[in-house]
Design brief:
Elements lengths: L2 E2 L2 E2 L3 H13 L3 H8 L15 H5 L4 H24 L4 H16 L12 H11 L1 H18 L2 H20 L3 H17 L1 H9 L9
Antiparallel strand pairs: 1-2
């Protein structure tokens, strides 16, 4: 049997990857802000359509829903691919596709967020311990510095180290984490410049 329904078996990985990218392209920060009657998060703060910018609107519930949506969209396709016994390379490409969808969404002229929450969702599906390590790193750095961007950068720097320890037997997953971390740092390059110049906006800082 060489077909599954109307989709040839050889094309099933491609369908998974495209579906993951399209799901990743949904910007929950924009969707939630519209539902709550809030300003487009792309017009606030750093212009990033993520939970941090939505939080700057003062609506904690909207920010929490944005965060949850971005995490779940990273988690769901990867978890489903794993539950469907997809080959490791397919799961890896699905992971990368949903993350790239968030960064470069087809629905928003390829201008997306920085990918922190979506990356966390991907890591949660691959390895809960890996996600926990990255999350605790973010929380610790943020609690000390009050800079969301700095917390994300440090977590991205350390995530490949955690992945090497936890996923050394799964090379494809380690590469996914490594590439996501590199892209996360790249997407925060403006924040890095502001942190160095002392002009980065931090929560609770004037």
């Amino acid at each position: 049997m060489n077909e599954l329904g109307f989709i040839p078996v050889t094309l099933i990985p491609v369908v998974w990857i495209i579906a993951a990218y399209l799901l990743g392209s949904i910007a929950f920060g924009i969707v939630v802000s519209k539902l709550f009657g809030l300003p487009d998060p792309r017009t606030v703060g750093s212009g990033n359509p993520g939970a941090t910018n939505v939080l700057r609107s003062g609506k904690k519930l909207a920010a929490a829903l944005t965060l949850l949506g971005d995490v779940v969209k990273g988690f769901l396709p990867v978890w489903l691919a794993l539950q469907s016994d997809m080959l490791m390379w397919v799961v890896a490409y699905v992971s990368f596709a949903v993350f790239i969808g968030h960064l470069y969404p087809v629905f928003y002229k390829f201008k997306g967020g920085k990918g922190v929450a979506t990356a966390l969702g991907v890591m949660l599906a691959i390895s809960p311990l890996l996600a926990l390590g990255a999350l605790l790193t973010w929380v610790l750095v943020f609690a000390i510095s009050r800079y969301s961007s700095l917390a994300a950068i440090v977590a991205a720097l350390l995530a490949p180290v955690y992945a090497w320890v936890l996923l050394s037997a799964y090379k494809d997953y380690f590469i996914v984490v490594l590439v996501m971390s590199a892209l996360l740092i790249w997407r925060h390059r403006t924040n890095i410049q502001k942190l160095i110049a002392g002009t980065e906006a931090g929560f609770g800082k004037k």
